[in-house]
Write a structure and sequence with these properties.
This protein is mostly helical and about 525 residues long. The protein has 14 helices and eight strands. The longest helix is centred in the N-terminal third of the chain and has 146 residues.
């Protein structure tokens, strides 16, 4: 068979196969479509039934919820009606109360109007009576002037003088009673506090003078100090600013100067020269310059040690050398630095007992006499100079006021100032703390007795116990018992205002009456 026939047969077979495949496929697809349509109809029917059931349930739930909401709404409306009724009742009650109160106010206003009218009538009556009284008083005044022979002004002056005299005695008695009452309440406590403060700190008593002595290894050294034609001693006195006294005292030379700083520098330089052995004007000047520098450094160290010893917070470095200078300053024979340290301790103890700041009191006590470090070099009292130093180095206001007021030169603004003054008096007044020349001592006693004798009616006065106890004898015919009490107060006030003294002075006014008869 030819190839083309075979090819045709093959093509025909393929076409027949394709036709058969298409027919079979069509039949299968039609069957699947019918099956799918049936499943879809079944699903649609089930969905319709389910949606109908859900819709029925939703309608039932909505109906139940609607009924529940209606019941709740009816319940809220009922409660609101009750609240409105209660509020209306309260408003009615309040309106009734306001009506009653308004009626009461109206009645009270009517009562006040009646009282006002009554008072106005009474005032008119009193005014009339007052005019009548004034007329009677004027008539009586004229009659009294005619009978007494005194004018109204003279009579007033005489009455006022008698009243003043009588009231002065009463005031003196009342003042004495109040002072006794105050003393009975605070004296024991004050004594205990001061005794405790003094017991906690006891300072050694030192006594310095205006001269310092330098020990020499031998009397031959005196000649070397004097030098040829006295050139060495002249150079020393010129450089040191002191007087060198060389007398018959063996192995001793004396430095005399009122400035303790210059005197101490001169003493140290002399000791260094004696130890060195080279005594000549050039060496003297070089050594004095070196000693002065070392001495100034030592003053600062003394100030630092003092501040550290007292446990004070930082003090300006510029003040430290002035604190150190107090070591070489004396007052009435008492070392000023030791005195200042003691005042600081006493002030601190008393401040702690009174609930005040003990550190501030200690600071004020240490610096209260700082002006004495420069009062030999500058004009002005140590109070003024100390205040200037404290202000210069920005000390607290409480410290400045304590410096200015511890001698009564300025008013005390702080309790710390009172404590510093009390501590200053305690430190200066204790036995042995200060020494006094005989001339000053006699002058002080004479001043006390002179103040007492200046009062009218004083017969004699005596200052006892170094001026701490004063006895005043008065004329009994001139001074009564009440006048004696008033005189004691007046003497005390005058002594406090005109004198400065350590400790306290007791004034005793003595009035004595004697009746003497002789039997024969």
């Amino acid at each position: 068979m030819p190839s083309w026939a075979i090819a045709i047969i093959a093509v025909v077979c393929c076409l027949v196969g394709v036709g058969i495949g298409c027919a079979v496929t069509f039949l299968l697809l039609k069957r699947k479509k019918d099956s799918a349509m049936k499943q879809a109809d079944a699903l649609l029917e089930g969905a319709k039934e389910k949606s109908e059931r859900l819709l029925e349930n939703a309608k039932l739930e909505a109906k139940a919820e609607k009924e529940e909401l209606l019941r709740n709404a009816e319940k809220d409306i009922s409660e609101r009606k009750k609240q409105v009724l209660q509020t209306e009742n309260k408003l009615d009650q309040r309106e009734n109360a306001l009506d009653k109160r308004e009626d009461a106010i109206i009645q009270r206003e009517e009562f006040i109007d009646q009282k006002r009218n009554s008072l106005e009538a009474r005032e008119e009556s009193l005014s009339a009576k007052e005019k009548d009284y004034q007329a009677k008083v004027e008539t009586l005044d004229k009659e009294l002037e005619r009978v007494a022979g005194l004018s109204m002004e003279d009579a007033k002056k005489e009455i006022l003088a008698k009243v003043e005299e009588r009231e002065a005695k009463r005031i003196a008695l009342y003042r004495e009673q109040m002072e006794e009452e105050a003393e009975s309440q605070v004296q024991d406590k004050a004594k205990a506090m001061l005794a405790m403060a003094m017991d906690k700190f006891a300072q050694d008593v030192t006594s310095e003078h205006s001269t310092s002595t330098v020990a020499l290894p031998s009397d031959e050294m005196k000649g070397r100090i004097i030098g040829r034609e006295g050139r060495n001693i002249k150079s020393m006195e010129q450089i040191f600013g002191v007087s060198l006294i060389i007398d018959d005292t063996p192995e001793t030379i004396t430095c005399s100067c009122f400035d303790p700083i210059r005197r101490e520098k001169a003493k140290l330089t002399l000791e260094a020269l004696i130890k060195d052995g080279r005594i000549q004007p050039g060496r003297i000047e070089d050594l004095y310059r070196k000693i002065s520098t070392e001495f100034d450094d030592s003053l600062r160290r003394i100030g630092e040690q003092t501040v550290f010893k007292l446990g004070l917070p930082r003090i300006s470095g510029g003040l430290l050398p002035y604190i150190g200078r107090l070591k070489y300053r004396t007052s009435y024979g008492q070392n000023v630095l030791d005195h200042s340290i003691q005042v600081a301790y006493l002030s601190s103890v008393m401040a702690a007992e009174l609930g005040l700041d003990p550190v501030m009191a200690k600071r004020a006590g240490l610096l209260h006499d700082i002006g004495k470090a420069i009062d030999a070099e500058q004009e002005g009292s140590h109070v003024q100079l100390g205040s200037q130093l404290a202000k210069k180095f920005n000390e607290p206001e409480a410290v400045i006021n304590a410096i200015e007021s511890h001698h009564g030169d300025a008013p005390k603004k702080y309790l710390t100032s009172e404590l510093v003054q009390a501590a200053d008096t305690l430190s200066a007044a204790r036995p042995g703390a200060r020494s006094e020349t005989l001339e000053t001592y006699i002058k002080r006693l004479e001043q006390i007795e002179g103040i007492c004798k200046s009062f009218d009616g004083v017969q004699s006065s005596y200052a006892l116990q170094s001026g701490r106890d004063v006895r005043v004898m008065v004329v009994p015919e001139k001074i009564s018992d009440e006048d004696a009490k008033a005189m004691a107060i007046q003497i005390r006030d005058k002594i406090e205002s005109e004198m400065q003294f350590p400790g306290q002075i007791k004034i005793s006014v003595i009035r004595e009456t004697r009746a003497v008869q002789v039997a024969k």
